[in-house]
Predict the structure of DNA primase DNAG catalytic core N-terminal domain-containing protein.
Amino acid sequence: MEHTHIRAAIVAAEDFYHDQLSGSWAANMLTDRRLPATVLRFGYAPAGWSTTTDHLRAQGFEMATLQAAGISRRSSVGTWIDALRDRLTVTITDAAGPVAFTARRAEGGEGPKWINTATTALWQKNTTLLTDARGIEPSPSALPILCEGAADVAAIATASERIHCYAASPCGTGLTDEHIDQLYARHRGPVAVAFDGDEPGRQASLHAWERLTERPGFGGRQLLVVELPPGQDPADLVQVGRGGDLRRRLVTARPLAELVAEIRTAGIHASDHAVRAVAAAQHLIATDWDRLHTSTRQHYVDHLAQRLGLDRPAVQQIVIDHIANSAPKLSPDGPSPRATSPRDATPRARPPSYYAPTTTAPRVLRH
């Protein structure tokens, strides 16, 4: 089936969902959560078994097209029914337009809280990220902020007006190689993450660090973390009227490498066990030094020394040893390798925040 027919059906379904939003519980939910209905492509899938299917059939769409678009499916008794019923809908787009929907049930409703429409010829959930509606194709210079779900995408979009960034979510699936590769192909600059401030959220940030730095397109780019209060995500902050707080946190994001170091050194301090602290520093430098953006390395040395209770020169020496051990081994007859200098361990100072608004740069909070 031609992609144009499938996309036309999805566009028609999106228009129908949008028309059904006003007066629905879904619209009330957006109001309660302080999320403007225009910040994402929101809609409402009616509760009837085949309301959407019947509407699109009346517009001339064939059942084969509606099934191929993930809008309709067979019931257990063989009848055609709507794939989404009684749900708040959010349209997922690619560069050419709508490709799928992710949808939330009502509070206390049946089934999973969020579901996606089925895989189609246009869309697979492991390849397309949901982004906010300020542009179907985000600017290559805008800072992508990875978050958990559609509500977080909407919250960040709401709080980040005049900040040159956009939110992106894998919508219920883990961050895949395809997601990362597409992100890196589109953006040459920094990438940020914004997960819950609780332990699962911290572990999600650690996992993101590992995934993002392992892909071929990483190239030593800056990775940042938007730190959130424990147990709260971006949508929670906006819902309780703390959109300004979320905005401040977006602007003052810090290097993700620092959070990674804190997670990996939890409970280790030289005052309790100096040998263990040195070993931890050696392991972190060996694991992460080459992944650090050059502008953050000096600050990372300071941060690691403070976290572990070590003198800065001691950590700096660990870096020098790492650089020396990582240098290519030359033959005895070849030229002498360049002497390792402490300067290698002290690159440029940490720059201002990458989250500068499009007007004036904010003051960076030092951590």
In short: The chain has three domains: 1-121, 124-252, 261-325.
